[in-house]
Amino acid sequence: MDYVAKKIDGVEIIVRDPKASDLDMIVDYWYNMSDVALRRIGVERARIPGRAARRQAFFDMVGNDLCRDSACLFIIDADGVPVGYYLVNKIEHGDSCQQHIHLCDRGYRHRGLLSHLAFDLMALVFAHGDVQTIISEPSARNPAPNALLQRCGFLPRRRYYKAAQGICAAMEVNRYEVTRADICGVRDEGRRVAALGYQSGT
Ligand SMILES: CC(C)(COP(=O)(O)OP(=O)(O)OC[C@H]1O[C@@H](n2cnc3c(N)ncnc32)[C@H](O)[C@@H]1OP(=O)(O)O)[C@@H](O)C(=O)NCCC(=O)NCCS
Question: Which range of residues forms the domain containing residue 130?
């Protein structure tokens, strides 16, 4: 299923369900990442499992449902080619989930794509899932997501030192949250309008 289809900066962007054929793009991204890039996002190379296990972890999410499962994967296509993914995990049904955005193809970064897409991704989760809050905890040393989340309606909650977990090293993170009420305009019309403003720039 396609969840989002829009033109941003002349690029046809589609956000859709994953297929097995998308997984090599994701696995290659993780295995080709430089030490500097891994450090920036707070991931420790030694903690990344082998290729087969990494692929399997993503494969296990193919066919998942936001209202039923604990994690869901979405693929971001640019002009018909998969260039990134949106991962929603730690889903506590009725409550909250965490989100992770990766534009794996570096050629598409820092061009405003996610500034124009982030609202659609949040809306996707609230429309198709049952959570009330989306949480994002990027490394405090990773400027792009910290800038992105603030400009797209997420509220900074706290900065704290997070213990190593999964593929992530221990690091200082900033915790941001956005709620269903924020996005539906029930609680904070100003932030909703600010976030919506990025849609109109397409
Ligand atoms: C984070 C990411 C999804 C942002 O998407 P994007 O399309 O590149 O972001 P945009 O171009 O819309 O920029 C959003 C904001 O980030 C800033 N930004 C983007 N890339 C940046 C960079 N390399 N360094 C500093 N700031 C950057 C932009 O200036 C903008 O901030 P502003 O509104 O204050 O001007 C993308 O850069 C990416 O996938 N990076 C690698 C993986 C990653 O870090 N994921 C987040 C893990 S939590």
Answer: 2-134
